[in-house]
Amino acid sequence: AVVSTQSTGFYLMSVAAHVYRWRKQEVYEAFNDSFWDGFRISLAAITEAQGKIWHNIEFKGLQNLPKKGGALLVGYHGALPLDAYYFLAHCVLERRKLKLVVDKFLYNAPGLRLLMKVLNLTPGTIDGCVSALNRGEMLMIFPGGLRESLLSDENYELIWNARQGFSRVALEADVPIIPFFTENIREAARSVKFSARVASWLYEKTRLPVIPIIGIFPVNLKMHFGRALNFDDEEDPKVVADVVTNRVEELIKTHQRVPGSILRELYKRFWVRTSDHPHSE
């Protein structure tokens, strides 16, 4: 227990040192502007440092994102949306507006609503999403939601159940859709299911995260953004949803070794050179 406590303390000090090294000027200037802006920048800087140290987080394909104006980012939901938090931190520090769509249970959890507001998280009604996009914000959404978070596994199958809400949002706001996928997101954290049938029954009965999750393992994470998809506003939402589904599945097939393995990715992180990785670039 003493060793564990000391290790945690050293890790936290390392995060603080990297925040000071990389982002001290941004934090200082933000607090001079306003308290909440300083608070937001500080949280983002801590999250960025934690992502770099613990997961060696990388963002690939950023050139596919618009430099200004709205865009809908659509991707696969890991057991924990660590990639979303890291990318939100990146956007905050780069002064690019990003709104995350989260499950209603999280937004309504006692004591969290203020933090959700400060971090620009939303339960995501269609009208609210369209308004955000029309204001020039990027919007990140996981169509699989909590169901995919809890019920998907190391085979990285999408569980979108033919959802079309995100395609209606993009068509109404007339913005591009950017498919994305984060390599090894299921190896960073994984839901524990002793029985797929029982897990599905529990979720459908409660609509709450009642299935345990293990992690957070220090595997490499790479967030891959695909090319922008543009659609005519008269396009059928089902057709749009099918195209986006196929593009996300293509990203998974291209960048993820399936089935995923926590032990294999830990071995690659700490004992194998990058040039030896099967998916190295």
Question: Biggest β-sheet, characterized?
Answer: 7 strands, mixed
By DSSP (H or I, 4+ residues per run), the number of helices equals 12
Intertermini distance: 40 Å
* Share of residues in strands: 5-15%
Rg, Cα atoms, Å:
19 Å
Structural class: alpha/beta
Q: What's the pLDDT, averaged over the residues?
A: 87
Polypeptide structure, described:
The strands form 2 sheets. This protein has a 7-stranded mixed beta sheet with strand order 1-9-6-2-5-3-4, sandwiched between helices. It has 281 residues and is an alpha/beta fold. The protein is globular, with a radius of gyration of 19 Å. Mean pLDDT is 87; it is low at 1-5. The protein contains 12 helices and 9 strands.
What attributes does this structure have?
281 residues, two-stranded antiparallel ribbon, seven-stranded mixed β-sheet, alpha/beta, 12 helices, 9 strands, 51% helix, disordered N terminus
Summarize the topology.
Layout: H1 2-33, H2 35-55, E1 58-60, E2 71-75, H3 82-93, E3 98-101, H4 104-107, H5 113-118, E4 121-122, H6 126-134, E5 138-141, H7 145-151, H8 165-173, E6 177-183, H9 185-188, E7 189-191, H10 196-206, E8 213-215, E9 222-225, H11 237-255, H12 262-270
Parallel strand pairs: 1-9, 2-5, 2-6, 3-4, 3-5
Antiparallel strand pairs: 6-9, 7-8
